[in-house]
User: What shape does this take?
Amino acid sequence: MQVHFLNSLLERCKEKDIHTAADISGYAPFEYIDGIRDKVDLFLYDLKTMNDEKHKEYTGVSNERILENLKELSKKGDSITIRIPIIPGINDSDGDIHEFAQFILSLNGRNEISLLPYHQAARAKYKRLGEPDRMPWISQPSDSKLEKTRITLERLGLDVKIGG
Assistant: This one.
């Protein structure tokens, strides 16, 4: 949403030999992402769910563009850490985890996976803004669930860590 500012900021960082990382959702025209690639050392790329209907339900948009952009970025050989927020009851079933793995294994390159435990930090923000919490029933995943997910993904051939 702020590609021109981001591009300028990245240019300044590169001029000063500062390592750069771009934390992106992937929901932008690929030409925006492609336009900053030469200035980004690491992309932090979030995948919330592989299921398009669930993605629409919980984020309001399709994940088609997000997945296509990740494929394109991966083809170009960029350094990417794929971050998966583990959200109990939404994207943490065995089927969900296998779908993530299947998609990620189809990408070019060796991408690191970072499992992020869902947290409730946004609840205070919603309250301050007078907005309803749209997922009040969701709790943080247990450490054992995160560890089980990490082990499953590693057994399927991925490099995985827990946390950001």
